[in-house]
Amino acid sequence: MEPILSAGDIVITRSIAKFGQASYQIANIGSVSMDTKLGDTPILSILSFLCVISLIACFFSVPLGIGGFILAFGSMFFFDCPKEMTLTLKTSSGDIQAFTTRDTELAQKVKDAIEAAFAERRRDG
User: Fold this and answer.
1) DSSP string, 44-86
2) Distance spanning both ends of the chain, measured CA to CA
3) CB-based contacts of 52: which residues, under 8 Å, 6+ apart?
4) Averaged pLDDT, 95-105
């Protein structure tokens, strides 16, 4: 059967979604979702630590402490922290976290391929 997507150990066909050694029948998947969270990085930890130090500095010099906090906290929003995407398959047996990656493009391609398999299944069904 011709794969809709083949990327490393991930293969999506119109009937099976395979992630490494685990395979899931497309017919048993009700929906697919992708959750995003910030990944753990040393920079994020350092900025969080600086926020705490800045709040403590408020006891000694309020303007210095507030300025440091704003600088450290604001940096979190402008710093490009890697994000982790987790692809979750909703099945009658429960939710299955099938795949986690920091590659946004790959995660979107896998989600789109599974949704394309749903569409083919509906069209053939």
Assistant:
1) HHHHHHHHHHHHHHTTT-HHHHHHHHHHHHHHHHHS---EEEE
2) 17
3) none
4) 90
Mention every residue, 6+ apart, whose C-beta is less than 8 A from residue 125. Answer: none
CA 11, distance to chain mean position in Å, is 19
Classify residue 13 by its DSSP letter: -
Report the 10 Å Cβ neighbour count for 74.
11
| Average pLDDT across the chain, whole number | 82
Quote the tokens at residue 72. 């450290």
Burial (CB < 10 A; 0-12, 13-18, 19+), residue 109, is middle
Run of H or E including 95: strand 94-101
**What is this structure's pTM?**
0.66
- Which has more confidence, 29 or 75? 29
